[in-house]
Amino acid sequence: xxxxxxxxxxxxxxxxxxxTLRCKPISGHNSLFWYRQTMMRGLELLIYFxxxxxxxxxxxxxxxxxxxxxxxxxxxxxxxxxxxxxSAVYFCASSPWTENTEAFFGQGTRLTVV
Amino acid sequence: DAxxxxxxxxxxxxxxxxxxxxxxxxxxxNEYVYWYRQIHSQGPQYIIHGLKNxxxxxxxxxxxxxxxxxxxxxxxxxxxxxxxxxxxxxRATTGTASKLTFGTGTRLQxxx
Lengths: 114, 112
Hints:
The complex is a heterodimer of chains A (114) and B (112).
Chain A: E1 5-7, E2 10-13, E3 19-24, E4 31-38, E5 42-50, E6 53-56, E7 65-71, E8 74-79, E9 88-95, E10 104-105, E11 109-113
Parallel strand pairs in A: 2-11
Antiparallel strand pairs in A: 1-3, 3-8, 4-5, 4-9, 5-6, 7-8, 9-10, 9-11
Chain B: E1 9-13, E2 18-23, E3 31-38, E4 45-50, E5 55-56, E6 61-64, E7 70-75, E8 84-92, E9 106-111
Parallel strand pairs in B: 1-9
Antiparallel strand pairs in B: 2-7, 3-4, 3-8, 5-6, 6-7, 8-9
């Protein structure tokens, strides 16, 4: 198994543009997590899904952020419009289920908004 | 609302055991203790987890005190590749509390 796959690995965009980050979880995993990491705030959980349904989106910073999981093998995190303060590394993780198992993380997408 | 407390940094000589402490005095009966690490620029990596018994795997050992208010992660023979930020997390087994919430972790520097 190739692990959790995120794309793109790096994204540079101008302020005001729409940005879409993509994640392919490990096959068979039915829980998916989106995290954001910055030097100031560390690793923050933005949202997580169980069986493609959003369970907790309390970490989503504002309405500019949205996440979808249309099927078990794909998820997107969209920022529209993007702002410089959204610059961060965004990680996606998946696990077989939410209880008592480890989560496997992707390599992250480094987003720079100029 | 931090549920764990870890020292911000630690040093360890290569080949020696690295003992990383974590306090979780408000841990509930249905919460596990998880350890992850993050090597620079990579995604966090799972190390080990436990409920109340000590656990060991190929990477590390986890020692949990009898009252479960603290734990220690032990890397028996640290190498330079173990230099990373180590996160101690308490995580419930069910419901929304089963999400993984990271604190600030301990930055472990392994030196020659």
